[in-house]
Design brief:
It is built from 8 helices and 9 strands. By secondary structure, the chain is an alpha/beta fold. A hairpin with a 2-residue loop joins β6 and β7. The two termini are 27 Å apart.
Length: 216
C-alpha cells in the first residue's frame, strides 16, 4: 500500500490483513517503486493524494510488475486516467466501500495468478483453493455457496482469533443484517465442514466465532 494519509492506512491496512493479505506500507511514490523492484508483490494499492504520484506511472512504463489499484477522488480522476491509461478495474473511487475494495483486490490478484500453480490455504485436513473457489475436507469436496466459502476463508486466515458477528457481517456484506443471519450461515457451514470430522468452528458465546482445533 502506498499512502501518505494516516487515516487511509489506519482503516485499510487492518481491513486487508483481516481479509488474509499481508500488507507492506510506504508513503512515497519513490519508495513504492523501490519496493516493487524487489519483487514478491501481488498487488500495489495507491492513494492518489501522494505528492509524487507521477513517479509510479512514469517509472512503471514497460515494466512487468504487479497490478496497481488507485484510490481516486474526483479531483484527481481526470489527471490519473490519461496519465496511466486506466481501465475500469484499475481504480476505485473514494470514499472507499470496503466490500467493493476487497472484491476488486481479489479479482485483480486472481487475474494475475490465473494459470499459475498457487498454494492452497490449509488448516488441518481443510484445504481452500481461491483459484476455483472450492474447498475440501480430507478427500471430501464441500458444496459451498459463495457466502459460505467467503466465511470459511475468513475464519481460516484468522484461525485462533475470535471474530465477532459484526466483523463477519462487515466482511461479507458491508453491514450487519441481524445476529440471526450470521448464526444461520455459521450453522449451515458447520454442517457441511464438520460432517464426520473433528469440529473446527467454535462458538465463543457473547464474543463470536473462531476456527480452532486443527493444525496449520
Amino acid at each position: 500500500m502506498v499512502a501518505c494519509d494516516p487515516e487511509v492506512v489506519d482503516i485499510l491496512c487492518p481491513t486487508l490483513e483481516l481479509a488474509g493479505y499481508r500488507v507492506d506500507v510506504t508513503d512515497t511514490g519513490e519508495a513504492a517503486i523501490d519496493r516493487m523492484g524487489r519483487g514478491g508483490l501481488h498487488l500495489v494499492l495507491v492513494d492518489t493524494t501522494l505528492p509524487d504520484l507521477s513517479e509510479i506511472p512514469r517509472r512503471r512504463r514497460g515494466v512487468d510488475g504487479p497490478p496497481v489499484l488507485f484510490l481516486v477522488t474526483g479531483d484527481y480522476l481526470d489527471a490519473v486516467l490519461p496519465e496511466v491509461g486506466l481501465s475500469g478495474e484499475d481504480y476505485i473511487a473514494k470514499p472507499v466501500q470496503i466490500t467493493e475494495l476487497l472484491a476488486r483486490v481479489w479479482l485483480l490478484i486472481r487475474g494475475r495468478s490465473a494459470g499459475r500453480s498457487e498454494p492452497l490455504l490449509r488448516y488441518g485436513d481443510l484445504a481452500l483453493d481461491d483459484t476455483s473457489c472450492r474447498a475440501r475436507r480430507g478427500e471430501r469436496e464441500l458444496d459451498l455457496t459463495s457466502a459460505e466459502y467467503r466465511l470459511l476463508r475468513y475464519l481460516l486466515v484468522n484461525s485462533g482469533r475470535v471474530l465477532s458477528k459484526e466483523h463477519i457481517a462487515d466482511h461479507l456484506w458491508g453491514e450487519l443484517r441481524g445476529d440471526n443471519a450470521i448464526e444461520r450461515l455459521v450453522s449451515r457451514l458447520r454442517r457441511k465442514v464438520e460432517g464426520g470430522g473433528p469440529n473446527l468452528i467454535r462458538t465463543h458465546r457473547g464474543f463470536g466465532y473462531a476456527m480452532e482445533g486443527g493444525h496449520r
